[in-house]
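Task 17 of the worksheet. Students: predict the tertiary structure of the chain below and write it out as structure tokens. Keep your answer in the requested format; marks are given for formatting as well as content.
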Amino acid sequence: MEIRYILEQLNDRLLYRLAEENAWPCVQSDGNLLNIENIVQHITSHDAIECVWRSLTTEEKELLLHFLFRIGTDMVTYRQMEEYAKIDSQLAIYSGLTGLRQRGLIYTLRRLWGELAYYLPDDVQTAYRSWLLSRFVREEGIPACEMACHWDTSSTPLARVVFQILQMHRYQPIGLTKKGTMTMKARRAWQNIVPYPQEMFLPLVPDASGGQEAREQFLLELLLSLGMLRKQSSNEGMQYAVDEERTAEVFKGHEAEVQRRLYLKVKEVLSRLHPCYSVIFDWMEAAGERTFSLHALREAESTLLGSIASLAENEHWKSFAREVAPILSLFGFAIRKGEGETAVFSWDVALFASEQKEGEAVWEGTGYVQPTFEILLLPHAPYDMRWQIGRYTALEEQQEVWRFRLTKASVQACEADPEHERERLLGILERIQPDVPANVKEQTHQWIGGDVPLAFMRVTILRCPDVETADWLAEERDVTGGLRERLNDCDFLIEESTREELQQALINKGLRISESDRAKLKAKETPRLEFAAASVPSAESGYKVESVFPSLTDVLPELKEVPAIWHKNFQKYHHSTLRKIMSTARDLGISVCAEIDGKLMEPVRIVDIRNEEGHYRLTLNAHGNKQHVNLEEIGRVKLAFPLLPDRD
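Model answer:
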């Protein structure tokens, strides 16, 4: 859940209050409308992050680090926060939490049945980790690992495997069973071309269903999430077809650029397996071009977190090293030597360099068109060239030099306007090699122009109740894309594959759909959308964002009973009052500044108070050292409240 989604749910009163407290750019130039986009850009900018970090109190910093590196993309329920506060100090934890909430970093979510949770938005924590890690690496550094002599370089780049899968299904969609899983025929075809071991995907897809292998399910879901495959109906049933437009976008540029796009999606998919996996990915990326091990990164994280590192487990590092890290080298994103946390990694340098170098790829000088109808593409040939020429060819070899072959079947597989396809194919060939062999030009011209096949198509008739309704539909831009042809005054021809999408569009326009001939227009105007100004429930999580400006006494009402003199004056107190002060300090986890046997000690934590034969005996913790003192030995004392500048 990103910060934009949360801010849109806050009411204007709270949003203005947060903007005023934190100097956010909250209004448009006209001074009226809230500008959520500007607020988001400000909160996640490194300049604003540096300014906020410098102003954070110790308690706020420690809790923010806990959320950034131990909670990750998860949320903390109210009960979990209570347990966490018992380990440390209620006042320290809740004052830090309140400060971060007042700064607009952490937000309170409420379940529909009342349960509370605290959440740091995904993009905010990513921005803060990016700033913190870059500063940490610059100032502290990451322990260097010895350069490995024998890297495991046997991996196949994921871009090549994805290309081969999509090229295979370009004109032969992936058939699906009635359960919605890949058919056995499709699975066998994938097993023949996917070089990755099946067992490496078992921990990533523990719930592989319908007899579908974990490897095939992982790759299929990856392609669907990228939009390179789309579901459609056919005479044989439901199937997954290649989305040419979206695939062309992913395959734009050179292999390193395609690998980067695939890496970002793989990172997103793998990060869902554990709330803190995204944290480890950020650490790995922060290492940059350095050679590193996960063990070294975990030690660096412990250094950054300091004392709070011991308050939470880090088992996720072990599971990441065992189950996730090997996938990164398997897909060609990194090279690796060794196993587990001690394995040494090094990123593919081009993976992140491509982020700055994306642009129009050069085609000239990257391939050859042979008189034998072979097309050879050199290693530096951009992937969009490979994908475009693959529209008319069969992929025969995928080594350093990719070999495609023009055949009659491959050229005629594209069922489109012959004249247009002829010009397009010739244009692609001439961009690869300006002087295309004459026999290739002549033969492809004949292949595209001849043997036009007969074709059966499944269509649906859409019948309107009257001419007025039909005329209105014909002019509605939102639905005309689904209308293939108007047959007469009241009937339209539509393709079966677009029926569901068109039907939903008609319903959205206020039309009542019937299987009979009595469909009737309810209203011609488009329904207006209404937006609530207050909190709106999240359909994804079942939570809604609370629109309440936080106060420390809301979560710790006991503070209202603490006299101001106890934390403002450093003085002696009567025996009974001193006992109350120490009990309050113990219960709320408040540190004290105290004179003990005439010596000043601070900060001191009260661990326990016992009555032993009429004398009160205290167990103190000062800088990690425990000691026992009698209440009578304590002189002047003062509660050390954490600072909340300009707040509470």
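Marker's comment: Residues 517-540, 644-648 have pLDDT under 50 and may be disordered. The first strand starts at residue 76 and ends at 77.
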